[in-house]
From TrEMBL, chain A:
Source organism per UniProt: Shimia aestuarii
Gene3D superfamilies: 2Fe-2S iron-sulphur cluster binding domain, sarcosine oxidase, alpha subunit, N-terminal domain
Keyword Oxidoreductase: yes
Domain of life: Bacteria
Single GO MF annotation: iron-sulfur cluster binding
Keyword set, alphabetical order: Oxidoreductase
InterPro entries per UniProt: 2Fe-2S-bd_N, 2Fe-2S_ferredoxin-like_sf
One matching Pfam family: Fer2_4
Coiled coil: none
Protein name in the entry: 2Fe-2S iron-sulfur cluster binding domain-containing protein
SUPFAM superfamilies assigned: 2Fe-2S ferredoxin-like
From TrEMBL, chain B:
Stated name of the protein: NADPH-dependent 2,4-dienoyl-CoA reductase, sulfur reductase
Oxidoreductase keyword on record: yes
Domain FAD/NAD(P)-binding: 5-315
Keyword Oxidoreductase: yes
GO molecular-function terms, A-Z: oxidoreductase activity
Residue span, SoxA A3 domain: 378-454
Species: Shimia aestuarii
Length: 99, 470
């Protein structure tokens, strides 16, 4: 689901394959997952459990918990996670159901 | 369980300088830091990144390599990827690393937990694409990721720094939407003496501003009525400048109107905090060495009050000297002799601060937002909700939790705490000190059961029994 990215990437690291919400993405290995997803054109990382509002990364330093994603059944902060080959990332939705 | 003379929480400038100084004086030191590389947010990933884009980030960033080098040289155990979630007794520190809980003991602790961006609640600020200016800097530093179509909103020197860096990287911001007014600048001139003593800051600031103007980046100052528009993501920023309404389309919005101390760990230890009117935030009560009113708990750097990276470095050194003195590694005379240079350095670094605080005050409408604006991002509690709780008799932030869960989400009040205090104080006519702040308890960050189950502890009674069987 390569969409037009609002971001420019300066570095040119080797890429690995990950899956985000069912879509294959090619991200720089060892990169910050939140930064890599945004650079790949992902805006909405999750929907809030309270109102279902869309959210994406906000602080990039592990403090705000807005960039939460699910990896292997565990909720993680994308900005505190490193891109590795084969990551399967799920976007949590309001009702808790995963797509 | 391992034990250190000193455990430092945070590997930014204060933590790195303190660790190096304490280790040099013979103390065993463990530094716990959440990130994979030393540097804190200001020098994030500095060792790896300087060869890649030190030119874009500038000399002040490159300076961080001197601190990381000192951290490597000295006999310091630097534990990376360590998320501290409890500091108890005197002192047992619990943290998570690589999915397992770990505990370490220390005689003394230094909290060098730095700053958080001051929350800037305005309509649309929770939309994807709206981030803190600090987040924008982290994206550039750590990841080499630059927003192509961004506007910078708010006030303060950091806004000019990130704009200058974006210019050097070839992706200038689409516009600067600045909230400080001419009146703020005129009011700040009463601090001009300090500003002149700290003139290097002003010169740097003016140079950055000149480069922004030269590049033709549109600047709007004294703006009001700022809102972010969009459905699934930020699409435009609207605002008033003078009598004119503006609308600027964009993909990314970087917000900034100052930074505030990250006080979570200090508050969890019961350190007394008081309101600092000039900086519009709570700061821990400390003596000249960074010693708090809790024995053995020291605080240095922006977590002790905003002073910037160089000030943090000096404060870290000063705290380490006192820690070594208390530990019997340094006479009082020797402590004072060694303290002279960092104390003078600290005074120099802080000289321009009152001028900057007055010239770039927080955006007032984001301190007391409109009723419909969410102030607690996690639980989606609005400013109007807080006001309605006040009408029902809620006078303190801890009560707001019972009324509507403000501050009870995963960020644990880091981004709504000061907003809740300000809104309640405004509604009740009491001061921020009287109104108070959230009570912060461990765990300071979420911990999973698996992380607890994997913990490296042996219960004392089990250890005794094992010994008896030997």
């Amino acid at each position: 689901m390569k969409t037009a990215s609002p971001f420019l990437e300066l570095d040119n690291e080797p890429r690995v394959n990950v899956v985000f919400d069912g879509n294959a993405l090619s991200l720089p290995e060892g990169a910050n997952l939140a930064a890599a997803l945004m650079a790949a054109g992902v805006n909405v990382f999750r929907h809030t459990p309270v109102s279902g509002a869309p959210r994406g990364p906000f602080c990039m330093m592990g403090a705000c918990f807005d960039c939460l994603v699910e990896i292997d059944g565990t909720t993680k902060q994308a900005c505190m996670t490193v891109v590795t080959d084969g990551l399967e990332i799920t976007r949590a939705h309001r009702d808790g159901a995963l797509t | 369980m391992t034990r250190s003379d000193l455990v430092v929480v945070g590997a930014g400038p204060a933590g790195m300088a303190a660790a190096a100084q304490a280790a040099e004086l013979g103390l065993s030191v463990t530094v716990l830091d959440e990130q994979a590389c030393a540097g804190g947010q200001i020098y994030r990933d500095v060792d790896r990144v300087v060869p890649l884009r030190g030119d874009i980030l500038g000399a002040d960033y490159v300076h961080g390599t001197t601190l990381t080098a000192a951290l490597r040289r000295a006999a310091i155990s630097h534990v990376t990827g360590a998320v501290v979630w409890a500091i108890e007794d005197a002192f047992r520190i619990s943290y998570t690393r690589e999915g397992r809980g770990v505990q370490i003991e220390a005689d003394r602790i230094l909290l060098a937990t730095g700053a958080l961006e001051r929350s800037m609640p305005l309509p649309g600020w929770t939309l994807p694409g709206v981030m803190t200016a600090g987040a924008g800097q982290i994206l550039l530093k750590q990841s080499g990721v630059l927003a192509r179509n961004a506007v910078l909103v708010g006030s303060g020197p950091l806004l000019y720094l990130i704009a200058a860096q974006m210019l050097r990287a070839g992706t200038p911001p689409k516009a600067m939407i600045e909230t400080q007014s001419r009146g703020d600048l005129i009011g700040a001139t009463r601090h001009i003496g300090g500003a002149l003593r700290g003139a290097s800051y002003l010169v740097k600031g003016l140079r950055m501003l000149a480069s922004i103007i030269r590049a033709g980046v549109p600047r709007h100052t004294g703006v009001t009525d700022i809102a972010v528009e969009g459905t699934d993501k930020a699409e435009a920023v609207t605002f008033q400048s003078g009598r004119r309404s503006h609308r600027i389309t964009c993909d990314t919005v970087f917000l900034h109107h100052g930074v505030v101390p990250n006080t979570q760990a200090a508050r969890s230890l019961g350190v007394t905090h008081s309101w600092n009117t000039a900086q519009q935030c709570f700061v821990p009560q400390l003596d000249d060495w960074g010693q708090s009113d809790r024995a053995g708990v020291f605080i240095a750097g922006d977590g002790a009050g905003i002073g910037g990276a160089k000030a943090a470095e000096h404060a870290g050194t000063l705290a380490a000297l006192q820690i070594a003195c208390e530990a019997g590694r340094l006479s009082r005379e020797e402590r004072d002799r060694r303290a002279a240079a960092p104390r003078a350095g600290l005074a120099h670094e802080l000289a321009a601060r009152p001028f900057l605080d007055a010239a770039y005050p927080p955006y007032a409408p984001a301190l007391l937002p409109d009723d419909s604006t969410p102030i607690c991002r996690c639980e989606e509690v609005t400013a109007g909700d807080i006001r309605s709780y006040a009408k029902l008799g809620c006078i303190g932030p801890n009560q707001t939790k019972a009324f509507g869960r403000a501050g009870m989400g995963p960020c644990q009040g880091r981004y709504c705490g000061l907003s809740v205090t300000a809104l309640l104080a405004d509604a009740t006519g009491r001061t921020p000190d009287e109104t108070g702040y959230y009570r912060i308890r461990p765990p300071l960050k979420p911990v999973t059961l698996g992380e607890l189950a994997g913990m490296n502890i042996t219960a004392p009674d089990t250890a005794e029994k094992e010994k008896a069987h030997d």
